[in-house]
Amino acid sequence: MPKITYIDFQGQSRSVEAETGSTVMENAIKNGIPGIEAECGGACACATCHVYVDEAWREKTGGPSPMEEDMLDFGFDVRPSSRLSCQIKMTPELDGLVVHTPERQA
C-alpha cells in the first residue's frame, strides 16, 4: 500500500498507509490526522481539507481542476502548491506522498 506523510504547520509528521484509489482526505479522516476537517465529506464543496503538496510531489499529483480552484478561493493562506486533499487519489506512483496542512482551515 502507498504511504502518505502529513506534516502539520508546527512540523509534526504522521505517516499512514493508504489504499490505492482512496483520497488523501479519506486517509486523513480514517487515521485521525489533525488539521483536515473535511466538512463536505469529500464532495469538493468546501475548502476544509486544504493541503500544500510538497514541492517534490507537485508534478506527480498534478494541478487542481477548475472546480477545485473555485473552492480553493475559500481556503486559508492558499499557495501555488495548494490542493484539496479530497481531490488527490492515491496510486502506487504516489507512494511516499508528502502533504502539509495549513495553520487552520477556512
Short summary of the structure?
The protein is of the alpha+beta class and 106 residues long. The protein is built from 3 helices and 5 strands.
Strand content: 15-25%
Instruction: Say how many strands there are.
Output: 5
By CATH, the topology is Ubiquitin-like (UB roll)
Shape: globular
Number of helices: 3
User: From the structure provided, what is the oligomeric state, counting identical versus distinct chains?
Assistant: single chain
The mean pLDDT is 97
Helix-strand sequence: EEHEHHEE
The CATH homologous superfamily corresponds to Beta-grasp domain
Radius of gyration: 12 Å
Assigned CATH architecture: Roll
Model regions low in confidence, pLDDT < 50 over at least 5 residues: none
The number of distinct structural domains comes to 1
Helicity, as a percent range = 10-25%
CATH C-level class = Alpha Beta
> How would a crystallographer describe the biggest sheet?
5 strands, mixed
For the largest beta sheet, what order do the strands appear in spatially?
2-1-5-3-4
Looking at this protein, list some descriptive labels:
single chain, about 110 residues, alpha+beta, Ubiquitin-like (UB roll), 3 helices
Question: What can you see in these coordinates?
Answer:
With 106 residues, the protein is α+β, with helices and mostly antiparallel strands. It has a single domain (3-100), classed as Ubiquitin-like (UB roll), CATH 3.10.20.30. It contains three helices and five strands, in the order ββαβααββ. The protein has a five-stranded mixed sheet.
